Amino acid sequence: MADAIVVGGGPAGSTCAWKLRSAGLDVLLLDRMAFPRSKLCAGWVTPEVMTDLELDGDDYPLSFMTFNELHLHWKALTAKLKSRQHSIRRFEFDDFLLQRSGARVLQHKVRDVRRQGSDYVIDAEFRCKYLVGAGGTACPVYRALFHAMNPRSSALQTATYEQEFAYNWENGECHLWFFDNGLPGYAWYVPKANGYINVGLGGMADQLKHQGGHVQEYWHKFVEKLERRGLVRYDDYHPTGYSYFLRGNVDVVSDNNAYLVGDSVGLATRDMCEGIGPAVKSGLLAARSIVTGEEYSLAGIGKFSGGGIASKILERKFVGS
Ligand SMILES: Cc1cc2nc3c(=O)[nH]c(=O)nc-3n(C[C@H](O)[C@H](O)[C@H](O)COP(=O)(O)OP(=O)(O)OC[C@H]3O[C@@H](n4cnc5c(N)ncnc54)[C@H](O)[C@@H]3O)c2cc1C
């Protein structure tokens, strides 16, 4: 029994749990994985995310890097976009946020979610008044309570492929390659502090299917390019894939005392596929709604990342409308 149960301990769930705990609620957080756990993600975070999380990079005790510009590549063109951004390692970051939340955390894979009177009951084992679905793309709360009201659009589904590994990198800049070899998306090179690196690529799943392609096919050309450019020389790649949804016209994000946050809704930005920021913001807003009774609305969460040149170009190119 808890006042609130949060399903999923990524940035959306841990942020929501943190604010609910700060307001004095008894919060139980269930995640199918034991933390620290791996999460496929380039680990790029904006200064706004740090502000929303009330975190100062200088005080964050784990791997943290700052870039003052992004290196954008498109065919033979390269542009440097002045923009202050950061990298973290999700393996560390998510565990840090979860511990900081102060919630009771239990490793448990949620299977069954139902409403019983004014309560929610999970797997006939856990009961609460408020339920927060923060389980990412495969969120069981979304599946059980919201799917019929709020179907996701396959046109906004991404397909990604990436790897993070220990690597003694020399180039400490963040590089992004757009539409390489016809990829309907972009590839990235993101160095991390303490000798790690994340390389990967992602695109719109529907467009890839339409082209008869698959992200794996772009991977080999991409790692060859990294080698050619002298950015990464590595021969032990084991990349993995994951899919998540970009922001659509989401109609229903709460119903009675059940709320959806982060990737469970599909909130990543439509240009840069940035999901951590919207996950954090939705976690904050859902917690505020639970604590104050204010309406929970996504109106204040942007569909696009920042207002930079890249966003403007990509808004047209990337979602293809
Ligand atoms: C390859 C890749 C690169 C990305 N790069 C970036 C980036 O650089 N910057 C950025 O801002 N965004 C990036 N994103 C998007 C970002 O990772 C997500 O949008 C973000 O993690 C969403 O946070 P979340 O808390 O909603 O979900 P998640 O972080 O996915 O957390 C969901 C949690 O729910 C748990 N869970 C799932 N099912 C159950 C269940 N049945 N029972 C209990 N627990 C369950 C999972 O174990 C997980 O811990 C990237 C995504 C991918 C795939």
Descriptive key words:
321 residues; alpha/beta; FAD/NAD(P)-binding domain; 8-stranded mixed β-sheet; globular; disordered C terminus; binds flavin-adenine dinucleotide
Can you put this structure into words, describing what you see?
Helices cover 26% and strands 30% of the residues. It is of the alpha/beta class. Strands 1, 2, 6, 7, 8, 9, 15 and 16 form an 8-stranded mixed beta sheet that branches. The longest helix is centred in the C-terminal third of the chain and has 17 residues, at 276-292. It is globular and about 60 Å long. The termini are far apart. The protein binds flavin-adenine dinucleotide.
Question: SSE layout and pairings?
Answer:
Layout: E1 2-7, H1 11-22, E2 27-31, E3 44-45, H2 47-52, E4 64-74, E5 77-88, H3 90-101, E6 104-107, E7 113-116, E8 119-122, E9 126-133, H4 140-146, E10 158-166, E11 174-178, E12 185-192, E13 196-204, H5 205-210, H6 215-228, E14 240-242, E15 254-255, E16 258-260, H7 276-292, H8 309-318
Helix pairs in contact: 1-3, 1-7
The chain binds flavin-adenine dinucleotide.
What is the gist of this entry?
26% of the residues lie in helices and 30% in strands. It is built from eight helices and 16 strands. Residues 315-321 have low confidence and may be disordered.
